[in-house]
Amino acid sequence: MTSPALPRSSFGKRLLFAVLALGLLASLPAETGPERAERLLSALGGREAWAKVKFVHVEAVHDQLSLRDPFTNRIWNDFSQPRVRIEARNDAIDRRRVIADGVGKYGRDGVVRDLTAEEVASETKWWEANIYRTLHRLAVGDGVAGHAMDHGDAGIIG
What pTM value is reported for the model? Predict the structure, then answer.
């Protein structure tokens, strides 16, 4: 009696590996949206910690292809209402954007102007979808984020 021949080609070996891997993955129990959310929150400090957060101040250095030098980006974000301040600065640029109470301002290198209604709406959409605010919403179970998790339409987790 002879044993079945294993593929000898590189492609055949990769195909066999893929079939075996898919078989293993198919046998794993499916994780529900709420289970994924819980695992994510646990990996990032825990549900209790994120439920307490009402505001964040994020500071990071960014590189952008259109700018020669990196810049420091600072974001102050209130989770309770669309109230956000963003600053992007280096030796060559000074950009600022603020929204609060349904209005906003934009400053570019010392020139300040009011944001249009469309720009405020766009900034508000950014605020609504902000990852830190989303983590807080998942932690407190505000219903909107939980609904998305239950129905598999939360792209950040699904």
Answer: 0.68
